[in-house]
Specification:
- By secondary structure, the protein is mainly alpha-helical.
- The protein has one domain.
- A two-stranded parallel ribbon has the order 1-2.
- Strand 1, helix 2 and strand 2 form a beta-alpha-beta unit.
- The mean pLDDT is 96.
């Protein structure tokens, strides 16, 4: 999980899950509590999917 995808690509990360922003990678303080919890859950589920997906090359998991 990362906030700056180009850096992750440059250093050779094989599975890349983009997050929200540098100061708040797994959340957004501007959202209501329930919306933020849903956002966090979505990001964690995307990361788990990335870990369980077979890949051959660097892959960015955006959705």
């Amino acid at each position: 999980m990362c906030t700056v995808v180009p850096i992750s690509l440059t250093v050779g990360a094989n599975r890349i899950v983009p997050t929200v922003a540098i100061p708040h990678p797994l959340g957004d303080p501007n959202l209501e509590l329930e919306e933020e919890k849903a956002l966090r859950r979505q990001l964690v589920e995307r990361a788990l999917k990335a870990l369980s997906t077979e890949i051959e090359d660097q892959t960015v998991f955006e959705d």
